[in-house]
Design a protein that fits this description.
With 375 residues, the protein is an alpha+beta fold. The protein has 3 domains: 83 residues, Phosphorylase Kinase, domain 1; 202 residues, Orthogonal Bundle (Transferase(Phosphotransferase), domain 1); 59 residues, no CATH class. It is built from 14 helices and 11 strands. The strands form 3 sheets. A 6-stranded antiparallel sheet has the order 1-2-3-4-6-5, with helices on one face. A 3-stranded antiparallel sheet has the order 7-9-10. A two-stranded antiparallel sheet has the order 8-11. The longest helix is centred in the N-terminal third of the chain and has 20 residues. About 10% of the residues have low confidence.
Length: 375
């Protein structure tokens, strides 16, 4: 539900809007009795209120309720308002790493310190069976005192991931997803290690390690492409630090750091004199878009804000058609494109851009006539 400044929700008054995540809108609120400023998260207005979305929101509340760490934004309480779930969170006054990256240079030592704190919070969460699954610069907040706070546990799970993951359901931010996450396989704490590695790589070099012109290229890159060694992009990066980053980005989980603590120990082993260099910020418009791929955005487009394709039978068939041209990555591409397309024609138009060969593209588009969304 949408709220406006001065609206009152229980004992809280809305005093501002902070932003939106995958499924939640976040407001700045003030408790009318204590006068404490807090953050209030509700489901996005006009978001389809499916059982799955409701379960994810409730799961985030319960996951946060089990965590108490200085590097994780705390849950204060949760309640229902007019039948909808509302969570009240610690208000973090600061900037996300994404904003910091866009605002100018920072020292290598400061970048490493931010990742140390991120890993500290993740180590605590992992010991309690919680995997975040969506670590990226926009989910790492830095306070004015340089304290890191991890945000948005909306994709986190606690316990066995198979309890909440359906075959073919791919969630996350594609530039920061581990290979096993891209393929929709069962993940564990090592998927967060990979995402931290991507974020550190970006802090050190000003670019993401895997990029491409479309979802297929990015997804395929996570599975097959070896990113450039950071030291080849920025010669000021110590060889030891570059090796640490590359290990965190290993394709196979067994070849990465096996825990956040192990990753943290590796960073702690660096000599401080080697990490005082200011890092470049070579962000071009192409690099900046790498933070969040517009094509990967799971929110419906403005032209059709609530209608998305949901006919499973047709989507499976279209996936099989596309797989003949781009391989098993097709299921990832179709699942995400279906979140943006209002019609089957929209879907085919989006998917065709992932096929490099003109003749193959025409062959794929010709299959459109075989399918209908009529029940």
């Amino acid at each position: 539900m949408p709220f406006n400044v001065e609206d009152q929700i229980g004992d809280y008054e809305v005093i501002g809007t902070l932003g939106a995540g995958g499924i939640g809108q976040v407001y700045q609120v003030r408790h009318t009795i204590s006068q404490r400023t807090e953050a209030m998260k509700v489901l996005l207005p006009n978001h389809p209120a499916t059982e799955e979305i409701g379960d994810r929101f409730l799961r985030e509340i319960r996951v946060l309720a089990s965590l108490d760490h200085p590097n994780i934004a705390a849950l204060h309480t949760a309640f229902r308002y007019q039948g909808d779930l509302v969570m009240i969170l610690e208000f973090v006054d600061g900037m996300t790493l994404r904003a910091k990256l866009n605002s100018g240079s920072m020292s290598m030592s400061r970048s490493i310190e931010y990742m140390r704190q991120t890993l500290s919070g993740l180590a605590y969460a992992h010991k309690r069976g919680v995997v975040h699954r969506d670590i990226k610069p926009s989910n790492v907040m830095v306070t004015s005192q340089d304290r890191v706070k991890l945000l948005d546990f909306g994709l986190a799970f606690q316990g066995l991931p198979s309890q909440i993951t359906r075959t073919g359901l791919i969630l996350g931010s594609l530039h920061y997803m581990s290979p096993e996450q891209v393929m929709g396989e069962r993940v564990d704490a090592r998927t967060d290690i990979y995402s931290v590695g991507v974020t550190l790589y970006q802090l050190l070099t000003g670019r993401v390690p895997i990029d491409g012109s479309g979802e297929y290229a990015i997804a395929s890159g996570h599975l097959k492409a070896v990113p450039a060694d950071p030291v080849t992009i920025n010669p000021n990066i110590p060889a030891g630090l570059s090796a640490i980053v590359m290990k965190s980005l290993a394709k196979a989980p067994v070849d990465r750091f096996q825990s956040a603590e192990e990753f943290l120990e590796a960073l702690d082993s660096l000599q401080s004199d080697d990490t005082t260099t200011m890092l470049p910020t070579p962000f071009s418009p192409r690099d900046t878009s790498g933070f969040e791929s517009k094509k990967v955005d799971l929110q419906p487009t403005a032209s059709h804000p609530t209608k998305t394709l949901s006919n499973t039978t047709v989507l499976v068939a279209v996936t099989q058609e596309l797989a003949q041209h781009i391989g098993p990555i097709a299921k990832v591409v179709v699942n995400r494109a279906a979140k943006q397309a209002a019609t089957l024609d929209d879907l085919y138009a989006l998917l065709s851009t992932e096929i490099e060969s003109e003749s193959a593209r025409r062959s794929f588009l010709a299959t459109r006539q075989k399918y209908s969304l009529k029940n």
